[in-house]
Design brief:
Blueprint: E1 8-12, H1 19-27, E2 34-36, E3 40-41, E4 56-57, H2 60-68, E5 72-79, E6 82-87, H3 88-96, E7 100-105, H4 107-117, E8 121-127, H5 131-141, H6 146-160, E9 168-171, H7 175-190
Helix pairs in contact: 5-6
Bound molecules: adenosine-5'-diphosphate and guanosine-5'-monophosphate.
Adenosine-5'-diphosphate binds near residues 17, 18, 140, 172 and 175.
Amino acid sequence: MPKISGKLIIFSAPSGSGKTTLVRHLLTQEELGLEFSISATSRPPRGQEQHGKDYYFLSDEEFKQRVLAGDFLEWEEVYSGTKYGTLRSEVERIWQEGKTVIFDMDVVGGLNLKGLYGDKALAVFVMPPSLEELEKRLRGRQTDSEDKIRQRLAKARKELGRSDRFDHILVNNNLEVAKGEAHNLVKIFLGK
Ligand code: ADP
Ligand code: 5GP
C-alpha cells in the first residue's frame, strides 16, 4: 500500500481521444493547484521532447533496475518493447509541494492507479464521440505512421470496453464543452 498524503486526478483514454489536450488545459487553471506527473519511459525522445519535462528517458536496463528497486507505483509495456511507468518519487514530490497530482495515462495504467488510491483518486475516461472521429483525430495529429495508427485503433477498441470502471466518462465532442466539464469535475472532487 503506498503512503497517501494528497489527491490524484487520472485522465485516461484511447490514444487520440484528447486527454493530453484536456490535461494541458487543466494545468493552466492555477486555482486548481495541479501538477503533472512526469512518467519514465524506455523509448527515446521524439522531436523537441526533453528529459525531466516530457518524460524521464531511461535505457531499458535502467528501467529494469528501477522496477527491481521498487521505484514504480505502476509500470507497463504499453507498446511492444516500450515500457512506461509512474515513479513513486514523482507523486511524493508533488504532494510535498501541497499540490494535486494529475496523470495522462493509458487505460490499464489509469485503472491500476485508481486501484491503489481508491477514493483519493478521481479517474476520468475521456470518450471520443465515435471510432471514426478517433481515427480522424489520430490522422489529423500527424504524429503517427499508418502502422502506429492501426495499432492504436486496435488498442482503442479494447479500451472502450473498460470505460465503465472509471468514476466518470467525459465525452470529448465539442472541445470547449469538454474543457468546462473537466474543470467542473476536478473542482468538485477537490472541494474548491
Ligand atoms: P490523446 O492525448 O488522448 O492521445 P490528444 O490530446 O493528442 O489526444 O488529441 C488528439 C488530436 O485531436 C489532437 O490533434 C487534438 O488537437 C485533437 N482534438 C482534441 N480534442 C478535440 C475535439 N474535441 N475536437 C476535435 N479535435 C480534438
Ligand atoms: P507516447 O509514447 O505516445 O508518449 O505514449 C504512449 C502511451 O503510454 C500513451 O497511451 C500514454 O498514456 C502511456 N503512458 C505514458 N506514461 C505512462 C505511465 O507512466 N504509465 C502507463 N501505464 N502508461 C503511460
